[in-house]
Specification:
It is globular, with a radius of gyration of 20 Å. By secondary structure, the protein is mainly alpha-helical. The protein has 15 helices and 4 strands.
């Protein structure tokens, strides 16, 4: 079998799932494709009726700020799921990134070094997952569940099970500054999603990710470097999770190992609700944006109505089940 010379070489016999068909889709196909946009629009209308202050600039800014970190994690999860994988370790990597960023900033007096160290830690976590899944061949669910425990333990050992409290005001610049009146985290979120969307939809690398997710074996037969491509999405996701943890630490001025408990499940839920298939090979970054806005709107609405956390969990879980059920039903009919 001929091996390609670079990671992003185009597939020769495996067609990546197209983002738009040459044939004009029918009403049913359009409804299925854009159903979650309609759901988001309905939620926005409902939220505006129940909570008139929902559309105020201040509330919308807070809504995005509160969901910046999990949105960045969800972007990485989009790549993993489209490739046919799964990553349960992002919550632990998120916590490790927050802890390392704060700890290094305190020990060196440089928030920039803290950020660099956190990204390095995230890359190491991603490489670990990539080796376990792509090279050793462990099931992604089992591999990342195990690595999550290891990464979490490392975070607790590094911090001594105590929070790192950073007094340097420069450490909080990343999360609390603004550019032209727009909070920096929101700009970072937007730029990250744009970059991710371009990488996934408009590059050979992105098309190859779709190809291996759609048919792993056919990817091998076409000459794709499937192991390298598979490992790369875990490395990318690890870096993004650690970066998101750094934003959280910057916002609070504290880095601790017990944050991010729900990050993995929230990120997976956002990706699924947006319409990316758990079976791999289908999805898009814009879908993750829609999923993020749906969850952000729900959370904001629940808090504004003073509904308990228990009802929030029930509602989010129900939406995830409905989204997965819809995906399974549509695949059986196709």
């Amino acid at each position: 079998m001929n091996q390609p010379t670079d990671l992003a070489s185009p597939p020769t016999r495996v067609a990546a799932p197209s983002t738009g068909s040459r044939e004009r889709p029918g009403p049913a196909a359009l409804l299925q494709r854009y159903a979650m946009i309609l759901v988001l629009a309905g939620l926005v209308v409902l939220a505006t009726v129940l909570y008139p202050g929902f559309v105020s600039p201040e509330n919308l800014r807070d809504l995005l700020l509160q969901n910046t970190a999990v949105g960045i994690v969800a972007l990485g999860m989009t790549f993993v799921i489209i490739s046919g994988g799964f990553d349960l370790s992002v919550g632990a990597t998120y916590a490790l990134g927050a802890t390392v960023a704060a700890g290094v900033a305190i020990s060196t007096g440089s928030p920039s070094l803290g950020l660099a160290a956190a990204l390095g830690a995230g890359l190491v976590c991603g490489v670990l997952n990539g080796l376990l899944v792509a090279r050793i061949g462990i099931n992604p669910f089992v591999a990342t569940l195990g690595s999550a425990s290891v990464i979490s333990g490392v975070a607790y050992l590094y911090s001594g099970s105590a929070p790192f409290i950073v007094s340097d005001p420069q450490f909080k610049v990343l999360a609390r500054s603004s550019v032209a009146g727009v909070p920096t985290p929101i700009l970072v979120l937007a730029l990250t999603f744009v970059a991710g969307g371009v990488l996934l939809a408009l590059t050979r690398y992105g098309r190859n990710i779709y190809a291996i997710g759609g048919n792993h074996e056919a990817g091998w037969l076409s000459g794709l470097r499937v192991n390298d491509l598979t490992a790369s999405v875990y490395v990318l996701t690890g870096a993004l999770a650690a970066f998101a943890g750094t934003i959280d630490a910057s916002r609070l001025g504290v880095g601790q190992a017990d944050v991010g408990a729900n990050v993995a499940l929230d990120a997976i839920a956002i990706v699924i609700v947006g319409g990316t298939s758990l079976r791999g090979g289908e999805g898009a970054v814009w879908r993750t944006v829609v999923g993020l806005l749906i969850f952000a709107t729900l959370t904001n609405l629940f808090y504004s109505l003073n509904l308990s956390q228990n009802w929030q969990l029930i509602a989010k879980g129900t939406i995830v089940l409905l989204a997965v059920g819809l995906d399974s039903w549509s695949r059986r009919r196709s």
